[in-house]
Amino acid sequence: MSGRLVLALALGATVLAPLVAPTYHVLLMLPFMAYAVALLGLNLLFGYTGLVSFGHALFLGVGAYTGAFLTSVFKVRSMEVILVAAAALGALVAAPVGALCVRYVKIYFGMLTLAFGMVFYTFVLKFYRLTGGDEGMPFLRPTLLGRSIDGLPKTDYLAGPYYYYSLAVLVLATLVMWRIVHSPFGLCLKTIRDNPTKAETLGIGVARYRWCAFVISAVYAAVGGALLGPPTGNVDPTLAYWTQSGNIVFMTLLGGFASFFGPVLGAFVFIYLQDWVMSVVPFWRLIFGAILAAIVIAAPGGLAGLWVRRPSVEASSS
Amino acid sequence: MILRAEGLRKLYGEFCALDGVSLAISAGEFVSIIGPNGAGKSTLVNVLTGVLRPTAGAVTFRDRDVSGIGPARLARLGIARSFQLVQVFPDLTVLETLQAAVVSRLGHGARLFASLAADRAVREGALEVAELFGLGRKRHVPARHLPQGDKKLLDVASAFALRPQIILLDEPTSGVSTADKTAIMETLVSASKRIGVQAIIQVEHDMDIVFGYSDRIIALHEGRVLADGPPAAIEADRRVVDTVIGRRARAR
């Protein structure tokens, strides 16, 4: 089955889901779509630039807290303003953090991103007056495209207008990312992933490109974080904890970082598998740990890698 | 002179890898750097290509001090290099590798939302170099699937795709079968004429290649220039024969 057909079927099923699927499963699609946006960005850094961040929950947190502050403190309810502000703040925070982190690679890069993530987590946890500490902050229901939908029951709002709004953001984010990875800029990132020494001798400024990829990935994570807020209606520090960073790396590995849509698939499988495993056994992390080990050993290309070739080979044959 | 090195000295701790090396390269020259292992050839190439900053001395390119500015900036100024140990992008195809070099040369790397496939200048520039190096039919093959000789060619071709003024080739025929060596040299000499490369500097151990293609040879020994002159003068220099070339070449 061709990739385009699978994609069309998946998109069609996602569009139709609120009409045919049980509400519970439709609501599970909301965190999937939010994480999918974040993972498209994370994979620009991971799959296309070769840098594994263990601190991207920081930017999920920046996005989610931006929405919480805007709706509950500044009384700004427009979701469009929230998304733009989240993207801008994500970039603002990522600019200096990235400038420091991209000077290092491999485990040092990973540890440094983890450290910055923990700094942010501690900040939102301890500055109680500002952030509400471990209780978090309310993320009030935002307006969508300028329309207030306060009259609708919460479930109807989330499974209806907000669902399609999230889907539209995901589709837009996917189109933009597709363009980025197939641009001259995207090609330069791939050279850096494959061989930074060689890239440097071709005149490609490795540190500068890594920094750009870092900032773009942070913008995506912040937008994903902002999308995560309305379904729960509350934002707390666990969203910025290091286990969240681990989860999104897990999702990327699960789906396959070598494929453009791999991380999106990973987010989908992770969300539904986690929900199912948690309903069956209380020790879901044990099961997920075993799954992660199995993927790394038996299928390093992830689920997408079982039937999709590497992006570069795909591009060459098209 | 387009490239000049003055009194280059490079220390690794207490070890002196380069000890007052001076050289000058003019437009139109094919210069070979020879020397036994440990003579400082690789260090000299790394200093000339901006990878290493000299402990003392300076490298000037068209009267501009380029000492230690880094290979990326140097490549953008017009000095390219290939490596002794072949360097490719394993998952990129031949065409993508050459496109990356052309993207860099044309300054299109900042184009975030442009389509690479629709960038005709980049594609045509890459295809031209692929044809020059006989890699056109393999343009869709990922580098990791190429035979060793083609990987070497691709490494060199990507440097040529930058259309540099000077190219430094670190053992361009190492790891290649004897039969392929001459073919590679002929290819890169003809490509340099087509592309307009003004000077070629190579580090090479194969004396047939060195004496067959060079206008000038610089012999290094223990971090110093032992001799610098045309092939006939180098071949007649007893110190060079004894320390660098050896008996085999003397019997030529």
Task: Tell me what you see in this structure.
The complex is a heterodimer of chains A (318) and B (252). Helix content of chain A is 75%, strand content 1%. Chain A is mainly α. Chain A has a domain at 23-241. A two-stranded antiparallel sheet of chain A has the order 1-2. The radius of gyration of chain A is 19 Å and the shape is globular. Chain B is α/β, with parallel strands linked by helices and 252 residues long. Chain B has one domain (3-91, 148-250): 3-Layer(aba) Sandwich (Rossmann fold), CATH 3.40.50. Chain B has helices at 41-48, 71-77, 94-106, 120-132, 148-160, 178-195, 207-213, 231-235, 238-250, and strands spanning 3-12, 15-25, 30-34, 56-61, 64-65, 79-82, 166-170, 199-203, 216-221, 224-229. In chain B, helix 3 (94-106) packs parallel to helix 5 (148-160). In chain B, the strands form 2 sheets. In chain B, strands 6-7-8-3-9-10 form a 6-stranded mixed beta sheet, sandwiched between helices. The A-B interface holds A 176, 179-180, 182-188, 190-191, 193-195, 197-206, 209, 310, 312-313, 315-317 and B 49, 70-73, 75-76, 80-81, 83, 87-93, 95-97, 99-101, 103-105, 108-117, 119, 122, 139-142, 155, 158-159, 162.
Helix content of chain A: over 70%
For the record, give the distance between the C-alpha atoms at the N and C termini of chain A, rounded to a whole number.
16 Å
- The CATH superfamily of chain B turns out to be P-loop containing nucleotide triphosphate hydrolases
Interface with most residues: A-B, 32 and 46 residues
Number of E-state strands of chain A: 2
CATH arch. level architecture of chain B: 3-Layer(aba) Sandwich
Biggest pleated sheet of chain A: 2 strands, antiparallel
The largest sheet of chain B is:
6 strands, mixed
Query: What value does the Rg of chain B take, in angstroms?
Result: 18 Å
Low-confidence stretches of chain B: none
State the end-to-end distance of chain B: 32 Å
Number of strands of chain B: 10
Shape of chain A: globular
CATH fold label of chain B:
Rossmann fold
